[in-house]
Amino acid sequence: MIEITNLSKSFGPLNVLKSIDLKIKEQEVVVLIGASGSGKSTLLRCLNFLEVAENGEISIDSEKVISQKTNLNKVREKVGMVFQHFNLFPHKTVLENIIEAPIFVRGENKEEAREKARILLKKVGLQDKAHFYPDQLSGGQKQRVAIARALAMEPKVMLFDEPTSALDPELVGEVLQVMKELAREGMTMVIVTHEMGFAREVADRVVMLADGNIIEEGHPEDIFTNPKHERTQRFLNQLL
Ligand code: ADP
Ligand code: MG
């Protein structure tokens, strides 16, 4: 589903991603870990073309992306993204937030988009919040709306960048629950998170980034119980 080859990205003199190779299969759930500043967000942003990598290739769902010919909007539609800080439109209701892109980007008609939004709201447990504004919702509810909004574009892949890091601890579970359900349904997902319990339960693979490289990857059970790289050991110990 995703194939990243020799990807690199710098900001000025700072070489954030050095040479990343990563293949992600359809329906696979990959959790990205690594210290703050190790390039996790940059890697996700490259996958969604919010950042342009200097070198390397990315293909998503068999479409090669780093080339002049690529229609970025078309590829972006395949990749849903959920951010730490929700990024909902504050002046739009929950329903309006969800139907905006399906109508204006995908060209769905309003009725069709509304109907789908209602189904998605039910899926994330917010069917009674369609006409609320974001600031009338808790952080956990906002994040569930953000997930529904991303799903409304019918993406092939969902990217999550620390989706629960800005939430009060008691609200983390409801968001992870929705993500767990998505994984169970077979969504291909790349998730940056420090929720190691979740990673252990849901991830097919854990990938550790350090200094712009993937230094270790494997099944969560192996990475968490028997990390091989000293940097991974240190990182995991800090989370305990
Ligand atoms: P992580 O998500 O793992 O914490 P990031 O990908 O956000 O790491 O950042 C990696 C490094 O790149 C950091 O040193 C950060 O300061 C730098 N960086 C990220 N985005 C930019 C940007 N737009 N301009 C300059 N430097 C950036
Ligand atoms: Mg980050």
UniProtKB/TrEMBL annotation:
Q: ABC transporter domain location, by residue?
A: 2-236
What's the name of the protein?
A: Polar amino acid transport system ATP-binding protein
Q: Which organism is it from?
A: Peribacillus huizhouensis
Q: Which UniProt keywords apply?
A: ATP-binding, Nucleotide-binding, Transport
What Gene3D superfamilies would the database entry show?
Answer: P-loop containing nucleotide triphosphate hydrolases (3.40.50.300)
Recorded hits in Pfam families, A to Z, give:
ABC_tran
Does this entry carry the keyword Transport?
yes
Gene Ontology terms for molecular function: ATP binding
